Amino acid sequence: MEPMLRRHIEHVVPLSDEEYAFVEKHFITRKATKGAMLITKGEPVRYVYLVIAGLLKLTYEDKKEREHIVSFAMEDWWETDYPAWFSGDPASLSLKCIEDTQVYCLTLDGYQTICQQLQKMEHFFLHKANRGHMASQDRILSFLTDTPRERYELVLRKQPVLLQRVPKALLAAYLGLSRETLSRLYRSHRSAGGGKM
Amino acid sequence: MEPMLRRHIEHVVPLSDEEYAFVEKHFITRKATKGAMLITKGEPVRYVYLVIAGLLKLTYEDKKEREHIVSFAMEDWWETDYPAWFSGDPASLSLKCIEDTQVYCLTLDGYQTICQQLQKMEHFFLHKANRGHMASQDRILSFLTDTPRERYELVLRKQPVLLQRVPKALLAAYLGLSRETLSRLYRSHRSAGGGKM
DNA sequence: CGCGCGATTGAGTAATTTCAAATCTAGTGG
DNA sequence: CCACTAGATTTGAAATTACTCAATCGCGCG
Q1: Would you say B126 and B62 are in contact if contact means Cβ atoms under 8 Å apart?
Q2: Using the beta-carbon criterion (under 8 Å), do A130 and B86 form an inter-chain contact?
Q3: Residue A194 pLDDT more than 70?
Q4: Would you call A171 an interface residue with chain B, using a CB distance cutoff of 8 Å?
Q5: Which DSSP category does B36 fall into?
Q6: Residues B62-67, mean pLDDT to the nearest whole number
Q7: pLDDT: is A61 or A193 the higher one?
Q8: Nearest Cα to A119, choosing from B133, B117, B108, B57?
Q9: What is the rounded average pLDDT for all residues in chain B?
Q10: Using CA atoms, how far apart are residues B60 and A139, in angstroms rounded to an integer?
Q11: Spatial distance between the Cα atoms of A187 and A178, rounded to a whole number of angstroms
Q12: Do B125 and A125 touch (CB under 8 A)?
């Protein structure tokens, strides 16, 4: 069966068998169980990860030891602490498995080699980077424009999957509000929405 | 004298005279006076802009007609409504001059042609896209982690220029708080900071 | 001098947070 | 099947914080 990596890339640029083989050489795959850390704050960042299956959280811990979630990464997402990965500096973020997870791993060297040798792949990564940038701007806009309640409703509408897959406390850390507030918003929805009681 | 565009690009990738000439062909320059609109909500987005001099605001207007500032663009920044520029859809954002401004303009066609013909330039844009993505994640993190007061102090420390160049009301729309609140934060700083009265 | 605009101030209101306690749920062992 | 525990979720009440709305201030310009 076609490897997930190939399908993923060819969704953007077509590759010959030879080209794909060259690309694949630079990846390794890894399985990690729920709770495992792929990136730990303070340590070097070896890889950028492409999620094959499972769910990750990219987090930042502030001075008061509160955990904030920069993003969730699920199937087909690329994730890492980019500033640390690019620069070689120790990570300021952590990346942790919320579910059992399988990922492709790519080093910075591998990334650079692939881009240098295959313009198509540089094009692919440009495409992905642009997407990522736009998604981030969207999230910024949501912080500027929407109230916490509206942000919650947005997730409810656009990513109902998250409600199933992540504990509410994590969702709160992603939306930027306290678990208590999230719980109260959730309640008002249950009744208003017309669920059976 | 060296055109700003060439210096800007060669800060990332070196170009031969011939290569630069090819690239430059696809840009036009434009001057716009304070208050002019480069992108108007609802209209098509022809260009991505590289700011040569001046200052722009990229804004979103919500249902209650309140203006939110996604970002300020100053010298050496690339800015546009990316989703609209890439897709051809009408803009959901607006881009307006806060000061008299001079920009390079590049169409999507020009961008694609340049990338296709010169791998170096695809590399350049990949570099820029990665930077942009990281900057956005940083801003997201600030919304998650910092209180409005801390966000204000961050700008104070890291981009004091903005305080000089931008009216306070705009800064508030950028930080995601009301002008009144910003004014009060500003006050408490004046006294605490030990400025002459 | 008076107008106009940006910035500030004051007072009351709405929303969220915090801290503490109560409740619920799934898994474990008897 | 029931009791029990750990973790997640919910609830309550007080305290913070930011918002809104309205009024005032300060300054540059005609």
Answers
A1: no
A2: yes
A3: no
A4: no
A5: -
A6: 89
A7: A61
A8: B117
A9: 92
A10: 13
A11: 14
A12: no
